[in-house]
Each structure stands twice: as structure tokens, then as C-alpha cells.
Write a structure and sequence with these properties.
The chain has 165 residues and is of the alpha+beta class. It contains 7 helices and 5 strands. 55% of the residues lie in helices and 15% in strands. Helix 3 crosses helix 6, helix 5 packs across helix 7 and helix 6 (113-125) crosses helix 7.
């Protein structure tokens, strides 16, 4: 079974704060994900998004700031409540508003991946022979998130997040 965290940048004015509408919007975006990823307005992380969050939590150890910007890239944002008529199969959704997107972009642009990996990598990478492969996977996710959030922040966009299972 595959599970993905799907991130989609969108102008805040285009978002309806309605779970049913937003789930349909994100479903269409997921169907178009390869094109949207290529256009730089979408990103996704398969299965390991909780571990990517754990990597960023190492910023607490590095004292990256009292406001904990490391929480924003993966789980940051406000949940969008299901309406009474929403299908139970609709995914959990969150909206990270433009100020939070800017904070996430700033955090990702300034935090040292190597320092985060030095603190948290051993817990995330598994056995020694797999460590180099895991490090590269997390570095790729980090670079993708840096670019995605940087573009979204530059455009003044919000980020909508859905978890697809």
C-alpha cells in the first residue's frame, strides 16, 4: 500500500475553505501531479514524510529558533474540517497560509541539511550499508521541498496538503 503527502501551491484567493471542494481540487491536482510537479507547483513524498519531519525536528537540537519553523514544511498548517456531507474516504487536508509558507521557505533555505543529518540521520538511515542511500533520499526530499516552498513563497501562495492512502 502506498501513502503520499501531496503538497500543492495555490493562490490563497482561489482556495475555498470547504473540505468537499478542497478534496475535489486536490484529487484533480493529484491526477495532474506529474505535470504540476514539472511546473514547480506541486511536490509529494511517498511513505517517509513522517521521517522527513523527524529530520527537521533535529533543528530543535540545533536551536534553529524559538518559533519552531521546522514544523511547517510537513505538518504545518491548519486542518480543514470535514463537512457533515463529506465522504469518509476524503483525505485529511491542511492549508498553510502564505506567511507560514514564507517561514517554511526561509527555514529550508537556511538550515544545514548536513547538520540535521548529523543529529538525526543515524535514527533515520537504518543499517550502515543503507545509510548512504537513505541520506541521498532525504537530501533529495530536502532539495525538492526547498525549491517548492521557495517558489510558492516568491509567488505569495498558500500550500494545500493532502494525505493519500
Amino acid at each position: 500500500m502506498s501513502i503520499h503527502l501531496h503538497l500543492r501551491a495555490v493562490a490563497e484567493s482561489e482556495i475555498r475553505d470547504d473540505h468537499t471542494w478542497l478534496a475535489a481540487f486536490m484529487s484533480e491536482a493529484w491526477d495532474n501531479h506529474p505535470d504540476e510537479y514539472a511546473a514547480g507547483i506541486a511536490d509529494s513524498i511517498e511513505k517517509v514524510f513522517n521521517s522527513v519531519n523527524d529530520l527537521y525536528s533535529a533543528a530543535d537540537v540545533l536551536d534553529a529558533g524559538a518559533d519552531k519553523p521546522w514544523t511547517l514544511p510537513i505538518y504545518g498548517g491548519r486542518p480543514v474540517a470535514h463537512s457533515a456531507d463529506a465522504a469518509p474516504s476524503n483525505p485529511p487536508l491542511m492549508i498553510l497560509e502564505p506567511p507560514g509558507v514564507s517561514q517554511a521557505a526561509d527555514f529550508l533555505a537556511t538550515v544545514s541539511f548536513d547538520e540535521l543529518w548529523n543529529v538525526a540521520g543515524a535514527k533515520l538511515g537504518g543499517r550502515a550499508r543503507e545509510l548512504a542511500q537513505a541520506r541521498q533520499e532525504f537530501l533529495d526530499h530536502h532539495r525538492d521541498l526547498q525549491g517548492f516552498y521557495g517558489r510558492a513563497a516568491s509567488a505569495g501562495h498558500a500550500v494545500v496538503k493532502a494525505v493519500w492512502a
